[in-house]
Design brief:
- The chain is α+β, with helices and mostly antiparallel strands.
- The protein contains 6 helices and 6 strands, in the order H-H-E-E-E-H-H-H-H-E-E-E.
- The chain has a 6-stranded antiparallel beta sheet with strand order 1-2-3-4-5-6, with helices on one face.
- A hairpin with a 4-residue loop joins strand 2 and strand 3.
- The protein is globular.
Length: 167
């Protein structure tokens, strides 16, 4: 796994390549079936569900899925409430995160390390209108609760709710 992600990261260090392809491949390899991507009328979303609880990253209607995938990779690798994700990151995670965050270097004054990742996350959160929801599937219900994201409080438009689950 390490060598294939390193090869992908190296291939995508070229400024003409879009980081979304790299992020998509890395998310699938690292988080496998626990990560789900959807594209609906309200916009693209990515859910990480290791069990009956999930973190859902939802973007606004016209956001590009590839950019949300970049955001998701950076977020899950560095900021997620699932603390064990930081411990299970790929061995070449720093190279991978640098490759993805460098795609947004023109929008950031920080150009290296964790500051570059944080800047890329903040830029993409604002650009894509990303919101974070905590999702719990329990006894036939899907319950969602808006969460703070990167220091920004949840939108007042989002409310906690439970609905019958389709699954």
């Amino acid at each position: 796994m390490r060598s294939s992600l390193l090869l992908l990261a190296t291939a995508f260090l070229s400024p003409v390549a879009h980081a979304g392809d790299l992020a998509r491949a890395a998310l699938k390899e690292w988080l496998s079936s626990a990560v789900k991507t959807t594209s609906a009328a309200q916009g693209p979303a990515i859910e990480y569900c290791p069990d009956n609880t999930c973190e859902r990253l939802q973007a606004k209607r016209h956001a590009r899925l590839s950019e949300l995938e970049d955001f998701a990779l950076l977020y899950f690798a560095t900021m997620s409430e699932y603390s064990y994700l930081k411990d299970s990151r790929p061995k070449d995670a720093e190279t991978l995160l640098a490759a993805v965050s460098s795609s947004y270097a023109a929008n950031c004054t920080e150009s290296a390390g964790s500051l570059a990742v944080e800047c890329a996350l903040k830029y993409l959160r604002q650009r894509l209108g990303v919101t974070l929801l905590s999702v719990r599937y329990d006894e036939g219900l899907k319950c969602t609760e808006p969460q703070a994201l990167l220091g920004a409080p949840p939108s007042s438009k989002l409310k906690s709710r439970c609905v019958k689950s389709a699954a």
